[in-house]
Amino acid sequence: MTEGMTPEFQADPSPSLWQACVDDLARELPEQQFNTWIKPLSAQVSKDHQTVTIYVGNRFKLDWIRAQYAGRLTALLESLQGHPVKLELAITQRESGIRPTKASTPSSMDMPVTLAAVADESVANPFRSRLNSALNFDNLVEGTANRMARAAAMHVSGSPGHLYNPLFIYGGVGLGKTHLMHAIGNKLLADRPESKVLYIHAEQFVSDVVKAYQRKTFDEFKHHYHSLDLLLIDDVQFFANKDRTQEEFFNAFEALLAKKSHIVMTSDTYPKGLADIHERLVSRFDSGLTVAMEPPELEMRVAILINKAISEGSEMPEEVAFFVAKNVRSNVRELEGALRKILAYSRFNQKEISIQLARDALRDLLSIQNRQISVENIQKTVADYYKIKVADMYSKKRPASIARPRQIAMYLAKEMTQKSLPEIGELFGGRDHTTVLHAVRKIGAERQQMTELNQQLHVLEQTLKG
Ligand code: ADP
Ligand code: MG
């Protein structure tokens, strides 16, 4: 790409830089905080990359952003750029929503870029679906990790109200649950534009209930929810301990199923694993089809990277995609973040995308991983979790209460470090590499079948990643 560095990249470098910065914040901040303060922002980068101007909706928000986030934003932009950056804040003109007035736009600036998700509302259908039209089946890469969930979702969008009702999709963060929900809604609306579809995050549902309570508008609330053809409700674990919300959701649930409307839910755990949600609701959640979304395997991560690079107008060589996919394993959101960093880095430094460039661009990320995940660390974490002694990781003892955690630790060592099977065997008290291979295969296969084991592994993986 160096000689062929296209001029457009130089003309408009701001989307990647700003996007990369926002991606970092999305990982750092609680989702609600991110959605409220950071997501609505738009930014411009000056041609010389020295000044970044952020546009904020009003004075109050401007003061808040300055007080709470300006320092972090500057630091992130500087680390991405590799040189000092001046951060300026300006108020957006109301009517345009994003675009600043001419007067406030120095002529040296590029066009502003908005970050807000494209919430596309069908013109023919005045019903607000809150769907993001950018999330569809076409750009959701398929792999073993999401095959079941994707197939069920396709089926539901093709004939809602029939099989798999409700559809309950669960899995860890950043694995594509929200994407899949939007895909269902978008497909249904494309096929049947008159359908009443609503995508809502569980927290928003809670706040709708609270509002209905305060304003005594439960009739409207009920009418609204009970009239849907498809209700997509995201992250239902947020219903925990919210009794009134659970009751209203239960009512909506029964009403919708009775009229053969479809309900799709997501959660970070399987229904019976949900804490502080009424049993009658939990058993309803489980009464249709429950499917898991798993962390994507290596080849799927590679495919996702290559696809996303193309959709960003770049190309990522396969060997680079493999390098990144081997090092960024946790979830797709992380993978996207890594990709954005690499693209931004390549554009600003006007260098071709190579393994070396990826290594430089992801320096921070890689060093954190290398520091945290060692076989010793895995052994200790797993031993703590299953309440056995670390020494039992190397011992020859064979009771299942010890052998199994040991196999789990071997499996994690293979999944989360770059060590070879013989090296891992060595670190587990000089065991043969076939013993390690057996453990890796066994736990890997059982993980697909046994929900509880899968959950435990998720917890261990998250703990190890810190
Ligand atoms: P979750 O809701 O499970 O936390 P999201 O649906 O928000 O995860 O996914 C995180 C990001 O990863 C989104 O940008 C999404 O588009 C992307 N993503 C997830 N899975 C895939 C996939 N299989 N193919 C392409 N993009 C994906
Ligand atoms: Mg989500």
Hetero compounds: adenosine-5'-diphosphate, magnesium ion
Q: Radius of gyration over alpha carbons?
A: 24 Å
Domain tally: 4
Structure annotation, total helices: 21
CATH class placement of the largest domain: Alpha Beta
Query: What's the SSE pattern?
Result: HHHEEHHEEHEHEHHEHEHEHHHHHHHHHH
CATH topology of the largest domain: Rossmann fold
Q: Which regions are unreliable across 5 or more consecutive residues at pLDDT < 50?
A: 1-13, 95-124
Looking at the overall shape, the CATH architecture of the largest domain is 3-Layer(aba) Sandwich
Structural class by sheet pairing and helices: alpha/beta
Helix coverage percent: 40-55%
Q: What is the CATH homologous superfamily assignment of the largest domain?
A: P-loop containing nucleotide triphosphate hydrolases
Biggest sheet strand order reads 6-7-8-5-9
Give the distance, in angstroms, between the N- and C-terminal Cα atoms. Answer: 36 Å
The largest sheet, given as strand count, sense and whether it forms a barrel, is: 5 strands, parallel
Share of residues in strands: 5-15%
